[in-house]
Design goal:
This protein is of the alpha/beta class. The chain has eleven helices and eight strands. The protein has an eight-stranded mixed beta sheet, sandwiched between helices.
C-alpha cells in the first residue's frame, strides 16, 4: 500500500477510504473478504488516468464495526454517502463479489450517479452451491473462532485446483491474508448473510447502464449459473469469462483482468 488513507463520517459510521489520482471518477468496492487493500494493484493501475476511490465497507478493515443486521442495499447507501462526502456527482463503479451486489443497488437507488458497472465474480442471486459454500465458510469461522482456521478451510474456494496445485507459495500468501483479518467475526457473519439474502433478479431490467460482467469459469461461489442469471438479466451487459479460473480470477489471471478493466473504463469515461 503506497497511498494515504482518510476517514469519513457517513451517518453513524466512519469509513476509511483512499482518494488517488485525477480525472473521471472510479469507485472500487471490495467483497466479503478483506478490505480496500484488495484493490492495491488496481489503484496503482488506474490512478494515472482516473480519480480512484477505494474504501473499507462498514464492518470491514478500519471502518466502523458493529454487530448488527446489514444488507447489500445498506452498503450501497454508505457508498453513495461517501460519494456525497467527496463531492462526486457520478462515477464508474467496480465491485468484486459482494461489492458487485452493492453496486447493483447503487444503480437502482441512484441511476444518474452510476455511469457504468464492472461486476467481478458477482451475482444477482447466489445459486444453491454458492449459498452452501458461504454457509460452510461462516460456520468454520463461528465454530473455530479463528481467522487462521477460517482461512485454512476457505482458501480452496477462491482459486482453481490448477492454481492451488501449481502455485503453493501464492496460495499460502492468500491464506495468510485471509487469516490475518482483525475485524469482528460477527461483522463477517452479518455480511455473509447479506450476500445470501441478496436478490436483484426482479430488478435487473431497470439497470440500463453499460455493464461488464467478469467471472471465473470454475468459481463455486459465483458459478457460471449465477453469472448467466446476472448477465442475461442486465439489458446492456458484456461478459468476459476467465477459463480455468475461480473466484479470485483477478489474482489468477491479473494481466488479462487489468487490461480488460482499464480498456472498459477508458472507453466509457466521460
Amino acid at each position: 500500500m503506497d497511498y494515504i488513507t482518510s476517514e469519513a463520517g457517513i451517518g453513524r459510521y466512519s469509513l476509511r477510504y483512499v482518494d488517488e489520482g485525477k480525472g473521471p471518477c472510479v469507485v472500487l468496492i471490495h467483497g466479503l473478504a478483506g478490505d480496500l487493500g484488495a484493490w492495491d494493484a488496481q489503484v496503482r493501475l488506474l490512478r494515472p488516468h482516473f480519480r480512484v476511490i477505494a474504501f473499507d465497507n462498514r464492518g470491514a478493515g478500519r471502518s466502523t464495526q458493529v454487530d448488527e443486521p446489514v444488507s447489500t442495499r445498506d452498503l450501497a447507501g454508505d457508498t453513495l454517502g461517501l460519494m456525497d462526502h467527496l463531492g462526486i456527482a457520478h462515477a464508474q463503479v467496480v465491485g468484486r463479489s459482494m461489492g458487485g451486489a452493492v453496486a447493483q443497488h447503487m444503480a437502482l437507488l441512484a441511476p444518474h450517479r452510476v455511469e457504468t458497472l464492472v461486476l467481478c465474480a458477482s451475482f444477482a442471486k447466489l445459486d444453491a452451491l454458492g449459498r452452501r459454500v458461504l454457509s460452510n465458510m461462516r460456520e468454520a469461522l463461528e465454530w473455530r473462532g479463528s481467522w487462521a482456521d477460517h482461512a485454512r478451510h476457505s482458501v480452496q474456494n477462491f482459486v482453481s485446483a490448477a492454481f492451488f496445485n501449481a502455485y503453493p507459495d501464492r496460495v499460502a500468501a492468500i491464506e495468510r491474508l485471509l487469516g490475518g483479518e482483525t475485524r469482528l467475526a460477527a461483522c463477517y457473519s452479518r455480511q455473509n448473510e447479506a450476500c445470501q439474502l441478496h436478490d436483484t433478479t426482479a430488478e435487473l431490467a431497470r439497470i440500463t447502464q453499460p455493464a461488464l460482467v467478469m467471472a471465473g469459469a470454475v468459481d463455486p461461489i459465483c458459478s457460471p449459473a449465477a453469472t448467466s442469471l446476472l448477465s442475461q438479466g442486465l439489458p446492456n451487459a458484456a461478459v468476459e469469462m476467465f477459463e480455468g479460473a475461480s473466484h479470485f480470477f483477478l489474482m489468477e489471471q491479473p494481466e488479462r483482468f487489468n487490461r480488460l478493466l482499464l480498456a472498459w473504463l477508458q472507453r466509457h469515461a466521460r
